[in-house]
Design a protein that fits this description.
Length: 354
């Protein structure tokens, strides 16, 4: 096993931090000065380093490029008034990364190595964590095949890396989502519960078709009958109907979202009536039409809590209650923001301080 304290650091002599405008941060446009990298040679992890953010050298035969042998995570860090950095629920990300690794025949990333990768990188790039309300540092750990072999087989060598970028809102406005009744994101027995590039690449085309019709994202339905709601493009989805909080139950077609889990934990703590179960498209459409649906929103690390203002169903655009009059989603957003920023007690132990 690698001595994880032995991480070689090469500082970036040409910092880009002057390009960071805290008042106007676009998601994923500007990356922090450094990246973490470590190699798995089939037996052990070695040559851990932090180096200036730069393009990679990779074999043109790498299965990461040809077969999508690549997995990733997304988490965020927040600047506290004390100057310390709080990383939100990083334990859940390593758990999920290693679940994805198993499904993709990849080695597990040792927890100690993962935490060291976050600690060393965030400490070095701490000035990149923006302090303004609604901003954070998005952290993207990822693992990919580093083989120089084009055949189909479990890969032997891998690279685990972490990059970071300051971000503002992923969706700056409430979103319109279309219930997808033809294309499929995941099927039972597939890899829908993993965070692998393979789940995201093919989703872009149907999302693009929906964009041309004025939607921001899709609301994916089950791959067999298109009868049940699963998740939205970049987030899990929740509904408030007659005061009940309802969300699709997890399974192997739905990503086990960390914001989803956090919202459900808060809701249960507040004594809300929470239902994790199969959610029929027909039920949602009926609830909108009868006026019992009070709110719908997406939950995700990048998206945080995103109001859904309208849902497209077949050729209809169903308008949801006014966003300004909603109470539940804003309460989740405020509570999570307060915990992340250190304004409210971290009673669930969700923050890792650096
Ligand atoms: C996240 O919320 O972290 C995601 O990975 C969503 C998207 C940017 C792919």
């Amino acid at each position: 096993m690698l001595d994880t304290k032995n991480i070689h650091i090469t500082r970036n002599s040409e910092s880009k931090i002057a390009q960071l405008n805290p008042d106007n941060i676009e998601f994923g446009k500007l990356y922090s000065d450094h990246q973490f990298v470590v190699y798995f040679d089939g037996k052990e992890w070695k040559d851990a380093s932090v180096e200036p953010y730069q393009p990679l050298t990779i074999s043109a035969a790498s299965p990461a490029i040809h077969y999508g042998i690549s997995i990733f995570e997304g988490l965020k860090a927040y600047k506290h008034d004390s100057g310390k950095i709080a990383v939100f629920r990083p334990d859940k990300n390593i758990e999920r990364l290693n679940l994805s690794a198993e499904r993709m025949c990849m080695p597990k990333v040792p927890e100690e190595l993962y935490y060291d990768s976050l600690d060393v990188l965030l400490d070095l790039d701490r000035d990149w964590v923006p302090a303004k309300e609604g901003t954070s540092l998005y952290i993207r750990p990822f693992l990919f095949s580093d083989d120089d072999y084009i055949g189909i087989r479990p890969s032997q060598s891998f690279r685990y890396m972490v990059i970071t970028c300051p971000v503002g809102a992923y969706y700056s406005q409430p979103v319109k989502v279309k219930i997808e009744d033809h294309y499929v994101r995941a099927v039972e027995g597939g890899s829908g519960y993993c965070k692998t590039g393979c789940n995201y690449g093919p989703s872009i085309y149907p999302a693009q078709l929906a964009k041309q019709k004025g939607f921001d994202q899709l609301l994916w339905t089950d791959g067999k009958e298109h009868k049940y709601i699963e998740e939205s493009g970049t987030m899990n989805v929740m509904f408030v109907i007659d005061g009940k909080l309802i969300t699709p139950k997890l399974g192997d077609t739905i990503l086990n979202g960390i914001t989803r889990d956090s919202v459900l934990t808060l809701a249960r703590d507040w004594g809300m009536d929470v239902h994790e179960r199969k959610v029929e498209v027909a039920e949602i459409v009926d609830a909108i039409r009868s006026g019992t649906l009070q709110e719908a929103f997406g939950v995700g690390t990048a998206a945080t809590i995103a109001h859904i203002e309208a849902i497209g169903y077949k050729d209809e655009m169903l308008q949801l209650p006014k966003v300004e009059e909603r109470e539940v989603a804003p309460k989740f957003l405020k509570t999570l923001d307060d915990i992340k920023a250190g304004r409210t007690e971290d009673k669930f132990g969700w923050l890792r301080m650096i």
